[in-house]
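Hey team,

Filing this mostly as a record. A colleague (T.K.) asked me to run one chain through the structure pipeline before their review meeting, and I want the input and output archived in the tracker in case anyone asks later how it was produced. No errors, nothing strange. Just documentation.

Input sequence:
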Amino acid sequence: MRLSLHRALGALAFGATALASAPASAESYDFGSLILGDGAPLTASFATLTTSVVGDDVLFTLDAYGLDQFNGTEPWIGAMAVDGLKTGAVSDVNGDANVTMGKGDGPDGSFEFKFDFSDTTGKLLDNEVVSWTWVGGAGHFDDFALHVKGISYGDTTNAWYDATLAVPEPSSYALMLAGLGVIGVMARRRRPR
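Output structure:
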């Protein structure tokens, strides 16, 4: 019995170490609530942004996966507006688009700057992914919005969509419940009789 308790404690310690070594504030955002763009769909699900704060930097991964639901010959993501302080720089760009920092001409004037995903050689299309590091960006953002271009809804050829924080994966809850269960079993076994 002592051996199985020892193994349970070891597994719990290993799990806690793995969780502690993960980035403290990794979050995932879904885009799909229309902010600006008459005639464009009010809701859509077309991209996911994953953010991980590591020290003073923010690591971003943007995955475009549902742009084909928009009317237009080739819808694409042109920029991500940021409600926050324009500071730092972009580095470590990888994937299917270029990333630069631009002026803040977001959907409603509340976004201070943007990350541009297009240049003369490319743009972020459906089923493409781009990742980059915002050097010095930790703690300097509150909200995001994506600019979808190349759409066709009457006179509307582009639209802005807001980000919403994604619900944690069920596996995260399962890991937490498993840890609490082990702690409960250990506390029950340690009670004096």
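Quick notes for T.K.: Helices lie at 2-21, 170-190. DSSP finds two helices and ten strands in the chain.
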